[in-house]
Amino acid sequence: MTDLLIDTTDRVMTITFNRVDKKNSFTAAMYAAMADALTSAQADETVRVVVFQGHETVFSAGNDIADFLQAPPVSPDVPVFRFLRAISSFSKPVVAAVCGPAVGIGTTLLFHCDLVYAGDNAAFSMPFVNLGLCPEAASSLLAPQRMGYGRAAEALLLGDPFLAEAALEMGLVCRIVPPTEANALAQRQAQRLAAKPSSSVLETKRLMKLSQANAVDQRIADEAVIFGRMLGEPAAKEAFGAFMAKRQPDFSKL
Fold first, then answer.
1. pLDDT tens digit string along 30-54?
2. 0.85 exceeded by the pTM?
3. φ, ψ at 7 (rounded to 5°)
4. Which residue in 145, 165, 164, 143 sits closest to 155, CA to CA?
5. Which of 3, 57, 64, 136 is least surrounded, with the fewest CB atoms within 10 Å of its CB?
């Protein structure tokens, strides 16, 4: 698959979004490949760290809308939800380098990463309500915890974007660097993790996530059911119809 590049070198698996002409928007095939890659990395003792990265101009614009509408995720077993379960339960460290837009799942997947490094051009948004949908990836649970309720409400209820400095302040990212340096920094940090005692790293991550692991699993499942239902409702049909027609949606009667 050329849209997704997967390379394993020196105990680090790097998953690179390689669809820059489409702003690295995700297709069902890409979700399936990412879920399979994480499953493989989980079982492979030679892989100690996974890195997600995009291009210095864009991390991901979220779902590819045309692909999304062709095969809407109305079942918990579709590729996108397989990917979310895989990344949320992944026991090894996950590092991300984020530059440019990170929209929808481009932001919510970061709640499941252990170290996130942002270019100073990074822009995050979770505009699910604007599409007549609800949050996913347990972001309805994790965003208020990480951001505080007020800022999470602005991000999730209003769909307001936030920039790298705000993401750093709230702890979503660890450090801000020039966009040309973000991927290299993520790789260096991944190599540092890979060189440490594997059992210590795994147990430390497990203990940090232990108190909310079940809650995250349940919230992903709950969101998936509601998300699938809302896809068939009038608000989502209006939002996606407007998007495809390149017009403003009209929710005044919905």
1. 999 999 999 999 999 999 999 999 9
2. yes
3. -135, 135
4. 143
5. 57
